[in-house]
Amino acid sequence: MIPEIGFFSLILALFFSLSLAILPMLGYYLKQEVLQASAPPLTLIVGGLVALSFCILAWAFLTDDFSVLYVSLNSNSQLPTAYKFSALWGGHEGSLLLWVLVLSAWSCAVALRLKSLPAEMGDVVLAVLGMITSGFLCFLIFTSSPFTRILPDSPLDGSDLNPLLQDFGLIVHPPMLYMGYVGFSVAFAFAIAALITGHLHAQWARWVRPWTSSAWAFLTLGIVLGSWWAYYELGWGGWWFWDPVENASFMPWLAGTALLHSLAVTEKRGVFKSWTLLLAIFTFSLSLLGTFLVRSGILTSVHAFAADPSRGTFILVLLVLFIGSSLVLYAARANQVRSQVAFGFSGREAWLLLNNILLTVLTLTVLLGTLYPLAFDALDLGRISVGAPYFNTVFTPIALLLMVFMAIGPLSKWHKTQPKLLLKSITVAGIIALILTVGTAYFYDFSWLGGISVSVVFWVTLLSAKDWLQKVTAGHKGIVYRARHLPASYYAMLIAHLGMAVSLFGIIMVSLNSEQSIVRFSVGDTTSLAGYEFHFDGLAQIKGANYLSERAQISVYKNGLEVAIMHPEKRFFSTRQQVMTEAALDPGFTRDLYVSLGEKLEDNVWGMRIYVKSFVRWIWLGGLMMMLGGFLAAIDKRYRLAKGGNHHG
Amino acid sequence: MQGARKKRLLTVLLMGLVLAAAVSALLYALQQNINLFYSPSQIHEGEAPLNTNIRAGGMVVEGSVQRDPYSLKVSFEVTDFKHQLSIRYQGILPDLFREGQGIVAQGILTKEGVLEAQQVLAKHDENYMPPEVTEALQEAK
Lengths: 649, 141
Hints:
The structure holds two protein chains of two kinds.
Chain A: H1 2-30, H2 33-36, H3 39-62, H4 69-74, H5 81-86, H6 92-112, H7 119-143, H8 168-197, H9 202-233, H10 244-269, H11 273-295, H12 309-333, H13 348-378, E1 384-386, H14 388-408, H15 419-443, H16 448-473, H17 479-485, H18 488-513, E2 515-522, E3 526-529, E4 532-543, E5 548-558, E6 561-566, E7 569-573, E8 578-582, E9 584-586, E10 591-602, E11 605-614, H19 617-635
Antiparallel strand pairs in A: 2-11, 3-4, 4-5, 5-6, 5-7, 7-8, 9-10, 10-11
Helix pairs in contact in A: 1-3, 1-7, 3-6, 6-7, 6-8, 7-8, 7-12, 8-9, 8-11, 9-10, 9-19, 10-11, 10-13, 11-12, 13-14, 14-16, 15-16, 16-17, 16-18, 18-19
Chain B: H1 2-32, E1 34-38, H2 40-44, E2 53-60, E3 66-67, E4 73-79, E5 84-90, E6 102-109, E7 114-122, H3 131-140
Parallel strand pairs in B: 1-2, 5-7
Antiparallel strand pairs in B: 2-4, 2-6, 3-4, 4-5, 6-7
């Protein structure tokens, strides 16, 4: 009975969200305030109903209700409780329910912070969010209900969660990723509302910025978690594979980054208006495209679920509907928001324009590489895959160029900057960066591309430090006082930019300075790699909660001293008859030791992968800094608006 | 007004240039890094190029997996139930690699018609089959 209530509340939610999509819009055009004012309560009702059905599904998982088909396919009575809960988003239906839950959570957050907006704007925003919610609720109810039952012969036990997904990273990765992905729907809804109402002034950008920053921060965290998970869970030590589904989350991130920056220009200088709107539409469209790529099962990927053509078609229709109608609206109304001010080529807006061009090119690069195989297949030219070398050769130089400019932009002033001042600090920083690079090259071997990348890292760090020092030492108040009174959004930028440098440094070191060895390893043998001695001590059988494991013990020595004892495992999950590799890690600030079991070749002989990865943690550390920057930007006081007052009407 | 128009023209020109350069670089890089998929039958009929990276796949033939006792060298046969293809590989095969299951390998085809694989991919779980393999099997029927 309880699962039916869950389904029923989804249907009710659809009913209310359709009303939310229609009534406030009608109210806006008919100038009926009562209809418009219905938006916030309707949003909250939809949110409550979706949350209820989510809780009911969670309950079904936690109480092992295997009469629910989705539960029986993705859970098992032996599964540890935390994984029973996260199994909720382990399959297609549940992760879609999570998608809708996150969407309605964002909508409710908007509804609760509506007071600072002019009434008509806010209600239209909620109505647009209502349309998106309705679309996805339809998708959920008509093609992918997680509440379908197998009655009367329901199975006694479930067929278990995919062992790959039985992991802490997978408990938190999808919700964070969705918070980001779906969070861009708010910026999208604001853009559509601006087009409909014709209101687009500096104030508009101030409303949208915190929403975009926080969505971006969540997406950053989601991507970092995904990369970290892939690193330790897939057993081959990679941290980014240019897998189509990774790309699906990376494209909205790139476009979202461009959006963050163009919003800043729109707010401060009142230019780039129509471009900002277009970016907001594109960013969310890329989120939708990502959802389509992942959910339709047309991709060969870790994330691909069993394909069901009707689902693919449904979501494709949704995609075309949303993107198509918003672009038509854009074409019809964008000229109303044309910028009034001309902008200077020497000012900060010029650097941000460059930022936007490069980020757009990067997005297109990834988009092309991701969609090319699909287009090739659709045209019946054959099945192809686009290799990682494509992404690496094209992406790297453009990204490096972006980072070179990233360091200059913050130094320049809005509108006009004296080129002389800029030139001086640039030259000094450039020379110091080069000297430091040469110094570093003394300790580590680099290719020329590696050398350039390292100097970019120094360059960004130096110029950021210089900018900060200049800001805190100007004026006669004390340094500490000034440092504490710089706006949060300034620190947000500083931390995020430094985060980029930290990530880049990690990427360079991992790519150029890591060592690996794939060996046939017998018990009692020793192999050495990058100055470490790995000794294969022995094997043991271990019984886990829902698996049997073969565990190796490897002790690692450096200069005769024991550094670590590592226990890589091969786990056998009996319910799914599936084998899983559990890599052993000895993490460190400057290097990770990584051992994973490959194949059992004979008794006491295993094929093993051994890696010494330099500075690999820095990649994620930098990502976390960027996330922190995003959240700091979102809570900046200047965007916590005074309620009511002069912006109405 | 004159200045503003000039600026706008410059902006558009700049964007156009960057875009054109980017797109041509992109297409060039794409050309270099595309890996076409061939089924064992296509390779048997000589449709696949030599000395280029290609992808091939099918079902691993039961009993065909042979390992070198002293190194990580391994060879096996894949089939689309019409023709077979020998694949040689050095390294660790994925967890889900098993005889009788669908795999995709990426590598270079030798004159003898053996695929020297640099990478072997197996399906990710029980319900999943590489779409290339499914298609190859259907076409071979």
